Amino acid sequence: MNPLPRCVDWSALDTYQRINILARPPRLHDAGQLADVRAIIAAVRARGDAALREIGMRLDRCELATFEVGADEFAAAERAVDTGVRAAMRRAIARVEAFHAPQKPQPFALDTAPGVRCEQLLRPIGRVGLYAPAGSAPLPSTVWMLGVPARVAGCGEILLATPPRADGTADPAILVAARLCGIGRVFKLGGAQAIAALAYGTESVPRCAKLFGPGNGWVTTAKLEVAADPDGAAIDMPAGPSEVLVIADDSADPTFVAADLLAQAEHGADSQVLLASPSQHLLDAVVRALETQLATLPRASIARAALAHARLIRVPDLDCAIEIAERYAPEHLIVNTRDARALLPMIANAGSIFLGGWSPETLGDYCAGPNHVLPTLGFARAFSGVGVESFLRRVYVQEASSAGLRAIGPDAARLARAEALEAHARAVDLRLAALDRGSVALAAGGDA
Ligand SMILES: NC(=O)c1ccc[n+]([C@@H]2O[C@H](COP(=O)([O-])OP(=O)(O)OC[C@H]3O[C@@H](n4cnc5c(N)ncnc54)[C@H](O)[C@@H]3O)[C@@H](O)[C@H]2O)c1
Ligand SMILES: N[C@H](CO)Cc1c[nH]c[nH+]1
Ligand SMILES: [Zn+2]
Questions:
Q1: Among residues 225, 243, 331, 361, which one is catalytic?
Q2: 372 assigned to active site
């Protein structure tokens, strides 16, 4: 049994020890994983459904005649899922929708010079592929965290892939969630093979322009591979193993803090949880609470494996705790201190922030409203979580009248020649000359 991690004193660490203590744990399956993923992608590209069938038998231990979920399986899923759970899903979806609807940006048009009309259009991505993990634990909540913003954005076709169970069916709660989000097409495919099928298409799986969703190392590696291929698909972000950093002072209830750490630790052995506190008393109490709570936790062995690379850090003050959070850039940041909101202006590098003792991260995982598909591994320094904009493209439009061309054309030609791009300059000058000669017929239809 893994012992719980010891507390470290931040003030006693030198620069390199501080870097090491905040390093992510080594990826569990790194060795050979990239080669495996490349082989899976190559097989799916070369042999489509036949390869999916073989790989599914090897990795998911089930043989499927068809990958797409049919009407009977959807109906059976509706019967299998408890009515109370279905009602809670509906309420969660409504709150997630309420939060995402105002995210939708508005198109606009603007004259940047007289006769130069510029527009920003918004176009939903035509066909998107969503992935709901179901390896270690099926995550129906991921279905509405992706399906809701896709629907709000107005995507034309929304496909979902999720790993099959050993009996060849999909997790019923995932299917119910898909139905509630208006997702009609669900494919029983998991891991790198699901990503390859959605990115390149097969006989039975339509090719998607962009892929969304978290997953294990094979899923994330495959997403990065298809995103690097111009013939592949775009991706939302690399969303890796779950992580949380808790900042707590002596006002925090240690049992709440321990519960929040375990809630992320139970996701997987590669999840990482951190606690930074100026109170040694709180740190010691949290360690005791972790032991007590682990004793009755069904996924204790997974949580213990994750706790092996947990970090419990004694800091001189809360400013230092914030500095650590900014360096680490966690997926989730819980601030469980006296006046948590007062610390908010100092925080930028986090996927999602939970303020105060009554805001467990679990609320955000399911039903508070914001998205739970968030950047991990420090990507929160530069990436945001999934939102409506992730499913949209901005398309720019420019329309100049002859007056508009006269107004800004000379600048364009001058700047083109400054870059030694003569053809660019002539595309303007030829038109200006035509206007000067009075051959305005050339410009007919172009006057906005
Ligand atoms: N960052 C986020 O926003 C976020 C949100 C939810 C979940 N997560 C993370 O998602 C992950 C879910 O992982 P999971 O494993 O439970 O489910 P998963 O659905 O991602 O992976 C299951 C699939 O992995 C494939 N696989 C298993 N062993 C393999 C092998 N040896 N070689 C090749 N492929 C193999 C199988 O095909 C299987 O279908 C967790 O790490 C969790 O922390 C992250
Ligand atoms: N905490 C996960 C994101 O890292 C999301 C999730 C889904 N279900 C439970 N938790
Ligand atoms: Zn979670």
A1: 331
A2: no
